[in-house]
Design goal:
heterodimer; A: 164 residues; Glutaredoxin; 2 domains; four-stranded mixed β-sheet; 7 helices; 4 strands; 39% helix; 11% strand; B: 427 residues; alpha/beta; Rossmann fold; Ubiquitin-like (UB roll); de novo design (two linked rop proteins); 3 domains; four-stranded parallel β-sheet; 19 helices; 8 strands
Chain lengths: 164, 427
């Protein structure tokens, strides 16, 4: 089903309404609402930001100040798989620099960029809370740990196959 | 050795179901808690000596006691579990969230009842998806069993309970920023006072506690304060989830008695340094603690002993620096983190951390000047306690100030030689 770029689908509205019930005021569900929109559309466009703000009876400017605050809300299109490499201290000690360079060269994109084939976006992230298995990275929701420049290529390849 | 928090967790098996949790005495503490006056439960927690496990080490019972009680207190009150674990080098709450969600929920019901909260939220890190699934399922089970919702265990006490997923910002771990985030505002810290206990979430009395802190409560209620105190080896009570990361032989998290010597955690549990590497220094509990040296390895790992030694234990999850990793590079990494995570609200933090990271980067890349050291020392002082709106910048100043002192020779060498001699090892 094609999602319209300037309105919430019935499904999105229902999902957001469920979240609103968790709070005494509508605005408090704004992060959940942004996540719901992003889940179906990959990112939060300017148009959708305005629509969500209107739905939650808040200003688009305030909603944007929240959307841009968080690492997990994408205000620009991202690739099919978002790779988030932990660059915090334990992973850094355990070889983040080399790992990051290897990932970037394997997917053909620098940090903050999306590969030409649209398969991967590479981003840094803060401590993933798995420091005893450093270095680590997330691909989408999946956590990959104990990475090396040798085993990371295999991990990335597993996202290239059919159906991914 | 007793491990009340983790002995029942089997990381290969997934979380305990509600039936499994009940089979080992789970939810038993609610009957005691509900039959006691709230103030008696708070006194019990105070007497146990439980200190906040998020890193600040504040007395939990004391914090609970600051929530207004009685007929004149607002009817709506909130309990929030801070599960936004993001302190670099810290990986303890994940263990409890993924392994024993019912232990946390039970502790939260005890705390909520003791402060007469009407609604509770778990503020969970967006990246902790496994924990999210475990918690959402456990909450559903607890509702079905009547431990949550209306008239819990047939009493007149009711508690609404929700899991909120955050979206990745370190500052959300600061309790007033967390409250703004949960209200659907930009997550910048609030002025204190008023403290959240009197005016927090949507202006109502609110208690915010860490995952590990809350996970202890059912055990304290079941076994009593004297038992909890007896678990500690030195001054502080209970067990603590300690951890070791860096280039050690067996990095990991371990539940051990509070007051276990740092050396024992590092050598016996962490396995000591990998072959061919030498220990150089460590951060005892996350990025916002001081660099400490070999002489500190004989300290008991606990809040009180660390405070007496003029430093802080933080989260108790140590990060070890070896002799083949650049200390300047490590400090640069830490300060870049704080620069990135500054909420940008107050000027010393927003501009000072940025300047600090840029100066460190210049030194690490061989473009530093001798006067940069003085500039960094000044920043370490001006970003310290009392000069910024919240504790983020003072946290950043801890490893910076101590690192400049301990590694003074290495800083000077970088500037003099115009290069980092560890360069090929990392870049």
């Amino acid at each position: 089903m094609q999602l319209e770029s300037n309105q919430l689908s019935q499904h999105e509205k229902e999902e957001i309404d469920k979240e609103i019930l968790k709070f005494p005021i509508k605005q408090s569900a704004c992060l959940e609402a942004l996540m719901i929109v992003q889940h179906g559309r990959g990112y939060v466009s300017d148009g959708m930001l305005k629509v969500v703000a209107e739905y939650l009876e808040m200003s688009a400017t305030e909603l944007d100040s929240i959307a841009t605050f968080y690492n997990l809300i994408y205000r620009k299109p991202v690739g099919k798989n978002v790779i988030r490499i932990c660059d915090s201290v334990s992973c850094w000690i355990m070889g983040y620099d080399k790992l990051c360079a290897k990932v970037c060269s394997d997917v053909g994109a620098n940090l903050g960029e999306t590969s030409k084939d649209g398969l991967f976006t590479v981003l840094p992230t803060q401590c993933l809370g798995t420091c005893d298995h450093a270095p680590a990275m997330l691909v989408g929701e999946n956590l990959h740990r104990d990475l090396t420049v040798d085993n990371v290529t295999g991990v990335l390849d597993s996202y290239r196959g059919e159906g991914q | 050795m007793e491990k009340p928090l983790t002995h029942h967790i089997d990381s290969n098996k997934g979380p305990l179901t509600i039936a499994e949790w009940e089979a080992i005495g789970g939810y038993r503490s609610l009957r005691t808690a509900f039959q006691s006056a709230p103030k008696d439960i708070i006194k019990m927690i105070s007497d146990s000596g439980l200190m906040g496990r998020g890193g600040a080490g504040f007395n939990t019972g004391f914090k609970m006691g600051a929530v207004p009680q009685g007929e004149n207190a607002p009817k709506t009150k909130y309990l929030i579990c801070n599960a936004d674990e993001m302190e670099p080098g810290t990986f303890k709450d994940r263990w409890l969230l993924e392994g024993a969600p019912h232990q946390l929920i039970e502790g939260m019901i005890v705390a909520a009842h003791a402060i007469s909260a009407t609604c509770a939220y778990i503020f969970l890190r967006g990246e902790y998806k496994v924990a999210q699934r475990a918690l959402e399922n456990a909450v559903k089970e607890a509702y079905e069993k009547g431990y949550l919702g209306k008239n819990i265990l047939g009493t007149d006490y009711s508690l609404e309970f929700h899991v909120h997923m955050s979206a990745g910002r370190y500052i959300c771990g600061e309790e007033t920023a967390l409250i703004n985030a949960l209200e659907g505002r930009r997550a910048i810290p609030r002025a204190k006072p008023p403290f959240p206990q009197t005016s927090g979430l949507w202006g109502k009395p609110t208690l915010v506690q860490n995952v590990e802190t809350l996970s202890n409560l059912s055990h304290i209620v079941n076994n009593g304060p004297a038992w909890f105190k007896s678990l500690g080896l030195a001054n502080d009570a209970g067990t603590k989830l300690f951890g070791v990361s860096g280039k050690v032989k067996t990095p990991g998290a371990f539940e051990l008695p509070m007051g276990t010597p740092v050396r024992e955690i590092f050598e016996k549990y962490g396995g000591g340094m990998r072959d061919g590497l030498k220990f150089k220094a460590f951060l005892p509990g996350g990025a916002s603690t001081d660099f400490l040296l070999e002489s500190h390895l004989d300290l008991p790992m606990e809040y009180t002993s660390f405070a007496k030694a003029g430093t802080r234990m933080g989260t108790g999850q140590m990060i070890v620096l070896d002799d083949q990793t650049c200390p300047v590079g490590m400090i640069l990494n830490l300060e870049k983190f704080f620069k990135q995570e500054s909420c940008g609200f107050c000027t010393p933090c927003r501009d000072g951390l940025s300047w600090t990271a840029r100066t460190l980067d210049a030194i690490e890349c061989g473009k530093g000047e001798m006067r940069d050291i003085e500039i960094l020392q000044r920043h370490a002082r001006l970003l310290g306690p009392g000069n910024t709106f919240c504790a983020l910048a003072p946290g950043a100043a801890s490893p910076l100030a101590t690192g400049l002192r301990i590694f003074a020779d290495e800083f000077e060498e970088h500037i003099r030689e115009k290069r980092c001699r560890y360069e090929n090892l990392h870049r």
